[in-house]
């Protein structure tokens, strides 16, 4: 089948504003959208800019908006976005992040927020054995969040950021939960200083768009709500117990 790729283009060095350019591509319904983009890049327009790396949904490099929804080009099949011959697939860069060129965005703000929650195990206590033992049940409390590939699809999908660009964002909060829920971690108070702010965890309105967009099936909205409950439980403790 033949499809039309309608790609948002923008080179800040020469363009005053973003614009759309169309390409006609022959594509098998079971091929990936990334394959179609690569056809354009290799045989039609070498100036087209987008990121890719592993092409197997592990690195998160090729996150973009596809027909208005956020996801990975390497995990999106042509038949999922184009039903019949001649259909148009609209491809745009992730939202809320500055466009560096075409589908490539500057993720500095996204990673700054991510780093602010200290997304690593914090524990200075002596270890009795070679490692800190954890049961399977304890691990399963946060298991899905360990699958995050930092693609920023959830960040772009979040409606809250449209009106509140300072919002910490779904990915950062989900990773804060990942370590706060870890029985081996002792960094709750340090993350509390970032999470318990007007632009921290509280702006989330349960739109579930982050969960729907996640290519790794992480229950992001649930993890955000669990983080809220952790903070509420902490606040309800007696001052002597804090």
Question: How would you describe what is shown here?
Answer:
It catalyses: a menaquinone + succinate = a menaquinol + fumarate. Belongs to the succinate dehydrogenase/fumarate reductase iron-sulfur protein family. Pathway: Carbohydrate metabolism; tricarboxylic acid cycle; fumarate from succinate (bacterial route): step 1/1. The chain contains ten helices and seven strands. Strand 3 and strand 4 form a beta hairpin. The radius of gyration is 21 Å and the shape is elongated.
Based on secondary structure, the structural category is alpha+beta
How much of the residues is beta strand, in percent? 5-15%
Order of helices and strands: EEHEEHEEEHHHHHHHH
- Level-1 CATH class name of the largest domain: Mainly Alpha
Instruction: Output the CATH topology of the largest domain.
Output: Fumarate Reductase Iron-sulfur Protein, Chain B, domain 2
Tally of contiguous helical segments: 10
Overall radius of gyration:
21 Å
The total count of strands amounts to: 7
Task: Categorize the overall geometry.
Answer: elongated
Note the main sheet: 5 strands, mixed
Total discrete domains: 2
Distance between the termini: 63 Å
**Mean of all residue-level pLDDT scores:** 96
The CATH homologous superfamily of the largest domain: Alpha-helical ferredoxin
Helix content: 25-40%
Just name the CATH architecture of the largest domain.
Orthogonal Bundle
Question: Widest sheet: strand order?
Answer: 2-1-5-3-4
Question: Which stretches of 5+ consecutive residues score pLDDT under 50?
Answer: none
């Amino acid at each position: 089948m033949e499809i039309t790729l309608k790609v948002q283009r923008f080179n800040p060095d020469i363009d005053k504003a973003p614009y759309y350019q169309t390409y006609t591509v022959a594509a098998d319904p079971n091929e990936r959208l990334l394959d179609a983009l690569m056809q354009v890049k290799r045989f039609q327009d070498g100036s087209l800019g987008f990121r890719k790396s592993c092409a197997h949904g592990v690195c998160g490099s090729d996150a973009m908006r596809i027909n208005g929804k956020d996801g990975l080009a390497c995990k999106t099949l042509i038949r999922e976005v184009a039903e019949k011959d001649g259909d148009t697939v609209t491809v745009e860069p992730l939202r809320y992040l500055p466009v560096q060129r075409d589908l490539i965005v500057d993720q500095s703000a996204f990673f700054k927020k991510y780093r602010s929650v200290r997304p690593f195990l914090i524990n200075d206590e002596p270890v009795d054995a070679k490692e800190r033992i954890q049961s399977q049940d304890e691990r399963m409390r946060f298991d899905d969040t360990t699958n995050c590939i930092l693609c920023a699809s959830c960040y772009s999908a979040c409606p809250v950021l449209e009106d509140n660009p300072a919002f910490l964002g779904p990915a950062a909060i989900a990773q804060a939960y990942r370590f706060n829920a870890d029985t081996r971690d002792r960094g709750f108070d340090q993350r509390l200083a970032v999470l318990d702010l007007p632009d921290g965890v509280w702006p989330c309105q349960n739109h579930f768009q982050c969960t729907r967009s996640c290519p790794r099936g992480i229950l992001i909205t649930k993890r955000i709500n669990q983080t809220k409950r952790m903070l509420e439980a902490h606040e309800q403790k007696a001052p002597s117990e804090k």
